[in-house]
Design a protein that fits this description.
- The chain folds into two domains: about 300 residues, TIM Barrel (Alpha-Beta Barrel); about 60 residues, no CATH class.
- It contains 19 helices and ten strands.
- An eight-stranded parallel β-barrel has the order 3-4-5-6-7-8-9-10, surrounded by seven helices. A two-stranded antiparallel ribbon has the order 1-2.
- β9, α14 and β10 form a beta-alpha-beta unit.
- The model has no long low-confidence stretch (mean pLDDT about 95).
Length: about 450
């Protein structure tokens, strides 16, 4: 019988700095031995499917590393254009996303996934249960009438295609659903994957196959060396539902499954909420770290209020910054389209930038090497009114370029906010320094 293929985690636990860890450490500008130890302990992951490692920057997530940002793409049953998803992929890359996830539920899912995989070097994630549900519907069944074999087959296909990490809602168990029934929620189950599995369990009277047959899931992950992103199928979709018994029951299960995966040589991270009041975020992040032993935490937002549709990239950036300061490692962006419509290209761009702002603010607060230096360099450029330098050094260069273009009426390097009363211009006048022209190129 053939031995199972060696994984990145196997090498790390044996004290070997594999090529994948060395490449990720170069991208991260960190010590490869330190990254190797963090991966071995389960406190960091390197998302790199063995079928898709060459010619790309490998993504490391976790302890001591820069907070990363993911952008969700994907079609729906109402909007299923591959061309639109390609445009959103390009927007996510240009805005500085560290990874993308394909959440498609409309059109030819396999074709869309493989096309996007072929066109990006970013780490790539998926939610395979969507494919199982869509195929069930196309076969004339309900979305929750897939079989366990069909669900595992979908996970295997995603691994074979080169997907780096998969969301699997293995913590939606009978015990967690019982806790949910004891205390009904305002918003119920808002995770699509969690809702599909809950309905599958009610229909069949059986335990969640991803939990019951977790060893089968581990074998599929080992085959492609995929990271298991243990999904929060019972995350709160309302502030009123945050921190209930069902959420914490699922979190405890995910922590146990993550440790089990790590012992089996499979990398894992845990996904988190959701809608959470600002004052509860730090405690929820700390609890995940305590229960799991420091497994990387991947959070959606969190969104800190329910009442701002159209601005949820802002509500999530507020929550994401606090979550990351408290120990979260990976922020899933939220766009202005959240709760309203399928995101477009501009939604994607704004969502990525908002999440990157949150991530960078947390990097500065956490004392990450080089993070505060970026801000210092930019402040020096601002003091000199060096617009070409500010355009080149900004998180969103085009926003600076467009904004300053509207300020040319000031007549020099000042902007129209202060004009001749610009504090930096007045300081230059006192020092006898000449005014800068304010010219900048494309």
């Amino acid at each position: 019988m053939a031995l199972p293929p060696r994984t990145i985690l196997d090498d790390a636990r044996a004290g070997r700095v594999s090529g994948a860890i060395a490449a990720a450490a170069r991208a991260e500008r960190c010590d490869p031995q330190r990254l190797c130890r963090a991966v071995a302990a389960g406190r960091a992951v390197v998302a790199a499917n063995r079928r898709r490692r060459s010619g790309r920057t490998l993504l490391a997530i976790g302890e001591g590393l820069r907070v990363k940002v993911n952008a969700n793409l994907g079609t729906s049953g109402d909007r299923a254009s591959l061309a639109a998803e390609r445009a959103k992929l390009r927007a996510a890359e240009a805005a500085g996303a560290d990874s993308v996830m394909d959440l498609s539920t409309g059109g030819e899912l396999g074709r869309i996934r493989r096309a996007l995989l072929a066109e990006t070097a970013l780490a790539f994630g998926t939610v395979p249960i969507y494919e199982a549900a869509v195929e069930a519907r196309r076969a004339g069944r309900s979305a929750a009438e897939f079989t366990a074999d069909e669900l595992f087959a979908a996970i295997g296909r995603h691994g074979s295609d080169g997907v780096d990490f998969v969301t699997v809602h293995a913590g939606v168990t009978c015990q967690a659903l019982a806790a949910l029934e004891k205390r009904p929620r305002v918003a119920g189950i808002v995770s699509r994957g969690g809702s599909l599995l809950a309905e599958w369990m009610r229909r069949t009277g059986r335990e969640n196959p991803l939990f019951e047959d977790f060893d089968r899931l581990l074998a599929l992950a080992r085959e492609s060396d995929m990271v298991l992103s243990l999904g929060d199928g019972l995350r709160p979709g309302s502030l009123a539902d945050a921190g209930d018994a069902a959420q914490y029951q699922e979190l405890r299960t995910l922590a146990q499954l993550a440790r089990r995966a790590i012992r089996s040589g499979v990398q894992a991270m845990i996904e988190g909420p959701g809608h959470v009041p600002l004052h509860e975020i730090a405690g929820q992040v700390r609890l995940e770290k305590e229960l799991s032993g420091g497994v990387p935490f991947y959070v959606l937002g969190p969104l800190v209020t329910d009442v701002a549709p159209g601005y949820d990239h802002i509500t999530s950036a507020i929550g994401g910054a606090l979550a990351a300061i408290s120990g979260a490692d990976f922020l899933c962006y939220v766009t202005p389209a959240e709760h309203l419509r399928l995101p477009g290209v501009e939604d994607v761009r704004q969502g990525v930038i908002a999440a990157r702002i949150a991530a960078h603010a947390a990097d500065v607060a956490r004392g990450l090497a080089g993070a505060a230096e970026w801000d210092r360099r930019f402040s020096e450029l601002r003091r000199r009114r060096d617009w070409p330098g500010m355009i080149a050094g900004a998180m969103d260069p085009e926003a600076v370029r467009r904004g300053h273009a509207l300020s040319r009426a000031a007549g020099d390097a000042s902007c129209t906010m202060c004009g001749p009363l610009c504090v930096f211009r007045l300081a230059d006048d006192r020092a006898g320094r000449p005014h800068r022209s304010g010219k900048h190129g494309r």
